[in-house]
Amino acid sequence: MTKESELVLRAGKCAAIIRSICSLYGTTKDEAVDMFYRSQTATFIEEGVADLQCRSDKYLATLVWEEFNGN
Q1: What is the arithmetic mean of pLDDT over 15-36?
Q2: Residue 26 DSSP SS3
Q3: What angle do CA 49, 65, 23 make, to 5 degrees?
Q4: Cα separation of 47 and 26, whole Å?
Q5: What is the DSSP letter of 8?
Q6: C-alpha dihedral over 36, 41, 13, 51, to 10 degrees?
Q7: Which of 58, 56, 36, 59 is nearest to 46 (CA)?
Q8: How large is the C-alpha radius of gyration of the chain?
Q9: DSSP state of 37
Q10: Rounded CA gap, 47 and 45, in Å?
Q11: Alpha helices, DSSP H only, in 1-71?
Q12: 3-state secondary structure of 19
């Protein structure tokens, strides 16, 4: 897999997680984008930690939500 294809796949995954945050928690797109990109989960996905990119979008959206809501 090329570096470019990895970036495309990661961007798609991030977008899907952001959509999941919106649908699961009723946030606006801007709120979800801000929450996602400030999260430790996004950093871990970017760094390839624990193959988080292989987890479901809803699961990752829940992790991001819990980071910001203390659950």
Answers
A1: 97
A2: coil
A3: 110
A4: 28
A5: H
A6: 180
A7: 36
A8: 12
A9: H
A10: 5
A11: 3-25, 29-37, 40-47, 57-69
A12: helix
- Domain assignments of the chain as residue spans, ordered by start: 3-69
In 3-state terms, what secondary structure has residue 27? coil
Tell me the pLDDT tens digit for each residue of 27-67. 999 999 999 999 999 999 888 887 888 899 999 999 999 99
The structure's pTM equals 0.91
Q: Could you tell me the CA-to-CA distances from 19 to 3, 13, 58 in Å, in that order?
A: 24, 10, 9
Residue 10 near residue 44, CB atoms below 8 Å: no
- Asked if 45 contacts 36 with a C-beta cutoff of 8 angstroms, the reply is no
Cα separation, 22 vs 61, whole angstroms = 9
